[in-house]
Structures are given as structure tokens and as C-alpha cells.
């Protein structure tokens, strides 16, 4: 079946290209019998790449070369993972990942979804948004952990039908963390005074320029506890596990083999093993297409500049810090 699809795509591609070249020859060379023939040749040369790309697009649309979508979640999860011009282009933008999953779900060629995870977690609601998108995907879904699937990453994985990991993957951290910096003493030394202008007793709870009152600490801890209970409940329901069993992990991370023993992971294996399992489930050979974020032109230019600036800076740093050099960045 795979060979027939490949052959059909090749026939369609060659056919579209042949028609395009023939049409170009007629319009630019054969029909005008004047001195514009040189211009016709140039126009034909310019038209060939367009026709070739059109042929590939038509062939791919009529007979797609994939039936499994892969979406990656890499780095810390947030609503907006963008950074400054000199920062590393890292992080998992939740809205764009949701869009990738939804595009894969709307693609009639896609029969299954693989969510590739390498993330320490991140913001609560953006992580849940990705999990919900995976839950709503119409077809089999497998979460595959490469290095780390922790906290919000595990929240996402729990939304898939199966969770796979490598033997040495780090999996778990089913917990919630909140923190604050207390700078009240430093402010006093600098002569900075905090003056409260609020409406509502808890409005400035956690402000770093004043000491945290005990009732404020209890209030903030209550929020963390509520999020934790919600996290545990969601995982227990989706994974068909007892809430007490999840709580007993005490937000630990486990290597893949131990996570499998604890029931946090369904199977251990490589990506090839994941695809073999999908072939058995779909009863057909699988070919994967990675769905990537779609950016407007202006943002593509900005990201390109950001990657260039970071790569340039990293390159200079690596030269200066190379072993044996007199000067090093530390």
C-alpha cells in the first residue's frame, strides 16, 4: 500500500510538472514568434520552480505521505515563550502547540497523534490547555517522553491514551510549587518604604517589599493546595488510578523503569517501538509528519533574527571559553 501511494504521488508530481512546462513553452516560446523569445525563456525558467512546488503540493494533497502527526512539547510551558532578541529561542508556547494539535486533528490524512515530551513543566493553565487538546483529538494518542516529563508535562501526558518513556527518562513530579522573594529587609537598608494602597485585605498578599503575615501565608498555601488537589484528581481520573497512590509519590520524579512500576507509564521503549505499536493499532504502515508552529511573516523574521543573535553570541562565547585560551567567560 505504501509503495502504491509513493508511485501515485510520483505520477501526479510528474504530470503536474509536465503540464506546467508545456503550458510555459506554449505561452512564452512557441506562441510569440517575435524578438521576445529571450524574455520568454527567462520567464519559463522563473516559472519552473513554481510549477515544481505546485506539483509537489498537489501530489501531497491528493495522496498524503503521512498518517501520523507528531507534536513536540520542549522546554518550560507558558502562554508566551518568546524572549528578547539576545535570548535563546526556547520554551513551549501553549497556544501554538494547541494550534498544532488542532491542525493535525482537522487533517483527514492523520489517523493518530504522538505528543513528544521533553519538559520540566511550567504554567498550570497553559499545560492544561495542551492536555485538553490532546484529549479532544479524534484518534489514538500516545505521549512519548524523551528526557523529562515532569509536572505540567505529566499533566499533558495524562491526556493521551498511552504514556511511553525511555528506561532513563525522568517522569512524575505530580505537584505544585509557588514561591516568593522577600526583599523587605533589603528595602529597609536602601531606605525604600512600602506603602499599601489597596482595596481588599488580600490584594497585596505576597508582595516582596513587606513581610508575609501568617494569615497571608495560609491564604497563598491554600491556593497551592487547591491546585494540587485539582492536579491529582485530573491525573487519577484520566489514568484510572487511586488518588492516594498519586499523593504517595509526594511529587517525586522517577526514572522510566520505576515510573513504569508505579503505574505512571504504560510502556517503555524507543520512538521506533511507539511507531510499531501504532502500526499494530492502525493495522497499516505508519509515516510521521511533524506539525510545527505557524508564524506570521513579521514574527518569522523576528524569530530568525533572535536565533541568529543567540547563535552568534553563543559562538563568540564558545571561542573565548575554549580550553587553552587565556580568557574565559564564567
Count of individual helical segments: 11
CATH homologous superfamily annotation of the largest domain: 2-enoyl-CoA Hydratase, Chain A, domain 1
Which blocks of ≥5 consecutive residues have pLDDT under 50?
58-63, 297-302, 305-330
Oligomer: single chain
Gross geometry: globular
Number of DSSP E strands = 10
Output the CATH topology of the largest domain. Answer: 2-enoyl-CoA Hydratase, Chain A, domain 1
- What is the CA–CA distance across the termini? 57 Å
Rg over CA atoms:
27 Å
Mean pLDDT: 79
List the domain count as a whole number.
3
Broad CATH class of the largest domain: Alpha Beta
Strand content: 5-15%
Proportion in helices: 40-55%
Looking at the overall shape, the CATH architecture of the largest domain is Alpha-Beta Complex
How many strands, which pairing sense, and closed or not: the largest β-sheet? Answer: 8 strands, mixed
Summarize the helices and strands and which ones pair or pack.
Layout: H1 2-30, H2 37-62, E1 68-74, E2 77-78, E3 92-93, H3 94-106, E4 112-119, H4 124-136, E5 141-150, H5 152-157, E6 162-165, E7 170-172, H6 184-190, H7 214-239, H8 243-247, E8 253-255, H9 256-262, E9 267-268, H10 271-282, E10 288-290, H11 297-320
Parallel strand pairs: 1-4, 1-10, 2-3, 4-5, 5-6, 5-7, 6-9
Antiparallel strand pairs: 7-8
Summarize the entry for a quick read.
The chain has 330 residues and is α/β, with parallel strands linked by helices. Helices cover 51% and strands 13% of the residues.
